[in-house]
C-alpha cells in the first residue's frame, strides 16, 4: 500500500475519534508518525500535495515527526505549507518541531 492510501486510512479513523478517546488518538498519532517516518523524500512529497484538512490533522504530530526524521528539509517544507495555509496557525507547532532536530 502506498503512502497516500495508508495516510488516507489513518486520517479517516483519526477524524472520527472524539476528544475523550485518548487511547485512540494516541494510536492514530503513532500510526501517522510510523508511516511518515518510513521515507523522508516520500513524506515531503506527500505533505507538499496534502490537502488543507489532512494537513491540519497531521500538524498534531509535527514535533514527533521532526524528532523521528531529524530533517531540515521537513522543516523547510512545513514552513512553506505554513505560508500557504496561514489560517491553520501551524507556526508555533513548526517552531517546536524544529527544536527537536539535533
Automatic annotation (TrEMBL):
This is Uncharacterized protein.
Amino acid at each position: 500500500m502506498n503512502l497516500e492510501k495508508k495516510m488516507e486510512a489513518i486520517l479517516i479513523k483519526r477524524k472520527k475519534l472524539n476528544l475523550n478517546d485518548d487511547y485512540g488518538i494516541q494510536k492514530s498519532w503513532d500510526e501517522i508518525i510510523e508511516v511518515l517516518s518510513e521515507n523522508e523524500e516520500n513524506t515531503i512529497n506527500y505533505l507538499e500535495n496534502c490537502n488543507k484538512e489532512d494537513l491540519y490533522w497531521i500538524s498534531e504530530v509535527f514535533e514527533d515527526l521532526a524528532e523521528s526524521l531529524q530533517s531540515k528539509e521537513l522543516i523547510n517544507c512545513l514552513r512553506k505549507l505554513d505560508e500557504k495555509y496561514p489560517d491553520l496557525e501551524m507556526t508555533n507547532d513548526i517552531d517546536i518541531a524544529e527544536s527537536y532536530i539535533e
